[in-house]
Design goal:
Blueprint lengths: L1 H9 L2 H4 L1 H6 L1 H12 L3 H16 L4 H12 L5 E2 L18 H7 L1 E2 L1 H14 L4 E6 L4 E6 L13 E4 L2 E6 L15 H6 L4 E3 L2
Parallel strand pairs: 1-2
Antiparallel strand pairs: 3-4, 3-7, 4-6, 5-6
Length: 196
Amino acid sequence: QRDEIRDIRTHNPFFSDPAAAVDQYGTSFQKIVAEGWRSRQVSRTVAALSRAAREGKFSAIETIQAVLGLVQEPAIAYALDEDCDEIQKRKEYCRLAAETLYDGRGDCDCKSALAATLFKALGFPVLGLLNDTARHAAVAVGGVPEDMPGEGKLWFEHQGERYYYCETTGRGWQVGQASPEANAMVADPRSIVDLR
């Protein structure tokens, strides 16, 4: 498995051409998510999530929450790129989904790319949220009933569809629960990276 991950890393634009990947961050993030599902680690994870959702008769919200639980701590630890030997302590690096699963850690963009990859594989429309001012990354997920329970859920419309904010770092964040950076991110249309 180590050789497979090493090969996957070499195809990551943040590994092969980091300056260009950072310069075109939104496009690089799209590529990370588009390519992310093409690994055994991701296929197995999606199969396990699908089986759990089917057997547990999960609603859309419960399925989304299961993905968030998988990418948040403690399942995937939060770690800054420059503290990670496996990615050569690069200043900026967004892992492919298989890398994050294998490494068991990542920062906000790594966790968001993993979540987005899993949401797409499970059939949910998803947007990346990348904001330089907030220095944060998250995702927004569609395909959720409009009568979602709970008050104060953070959502916004994009091309006629409702998307709920999903925080991928930390622990215990719920679908639509706003992190401190969330409002600034969803208010700025430049934050949105269309991953559909």
